[in-house]
Sequence to fold (243 residues):
Amino acid sequence: MKKNIIIFMSLMFLGVISLHADLTFNIPFDPDVVGPAYNDSNYTFVSEYFDVINEGITDNFTVLVDYIEIPSGWSLGWCHEYQGGGACHVIPWPWTFEFGSGDTLKLDFSVIVTSAGSMAFTYTISAPSLMETVVLDFTYTTGVSVDDPQSGEKVLLKNSPNPFSESTTISFNIKNSVHRDAEISIYNLQGKRVKTYDIAPDMNLITWNGTDEKGAVLPSGVYLYTISLDDEITKTEKLLLIK
Fold:
């Protein structure tokens, strides 16, 4: 009898556990995103999707995206993909949906940039069966422009050919940079750095073959490349990889 009671209580315990939602996340980029520099030209940055997986029961979930303060003229939005469909949302209106057990929700964000600056924002995910509300913190910051008075450098930076399929040569000419550390970095549009080259004093070009630090071939798309002096991004340009 005692054994049967133990088994019964164990099943009850497992049943209680199964009545809760349980979320896991796959965010393939640094939550502190550094985008292109602002060079007197407005642009829109769109992140890649990150995944929210429901490891618990089916329940009605609410997603709310909001910010505390945003630079004047900027705009923040977000979109989702779920069960083969998707939509975009206006901040700060919440979105409520039925999140199936074992399903994956894809989320992204987009920033309309009208000046140099930075902002912090959050995704808040809640449901009646969640043990506690989940808050995901992100930041978006523009890179440093060559026209930024803090830069104080005159830098020439370009690549050819552009677009390219096999390789492209990034050429540069750094003036007034004696005794400074310099590097070329390549980023995808989600702000993830995929390749870095240290620049020796006698170098004025490097060749990139469209691979990351591990030698893996990267997908077609727009990439950003920057030149940094003493760990400060001084200029940013774009290139297009076509496979």
